[in-house]
Specification:
Blueprint lengths: L12 H26 L1 H19 L1 H9 L54
């Protein structure tokens, strides 16, 4: 049996042992007290869960979603032998690239003619 750690030197081992037993007893009793005060809420959760399962089985929307769910065919292999071992090796594979429309799809409109920018900034 391990006694609770304390910075103070324990003079009376019997007193420390009794304190430890009281602590464990209170911890065990708290479970019983919680069950008597709040145990009803677990029954409520169980009944709500069963009602939700029944409703979800009857739902046309959820059945369509579950049927349309596709499996991800991409495979992630062991990390590359790089210094960071995590970042960057998946971008070599086309199916993992984030830029599916090209490097930059945003092309800004030119400024109105009242602005005169030097040629180097155009």
């Amino acid at each position: 049996m391990a006694l609770p750690k304390t910075e103070k030197k324990i003079d009376d081992m019997n007193k420390a042992d009794e304190m430890w037993k009281c602590f464990i007893r209170a911890e065990d009793d708290s479970h019983i007290i919680w069950q008597s005060n709040w145990g009803w809420i677990m029954e409520q959760y169980r009944s709500l869960e069963s009602k939700l399962k029944e409703k979800s089985k009857q739902s046309k929307f959820l059945t369509q979603i579950l049927e349309d769910k596709k499996e991800d065919s991409r495979k992630v292999l062991k990390g590359a032998d790089t210094s960071n071992h995590v970042y960057g090796y998946l971008t070599n594979y086309e199916e993992f690239q984030l830029e599916i429309y090209g490097p930059d799809i945003f092309k800004p409109k030119p400024l109105p003619p009242i602005y005169h920018l030097p040629k180097q900034f155009e």
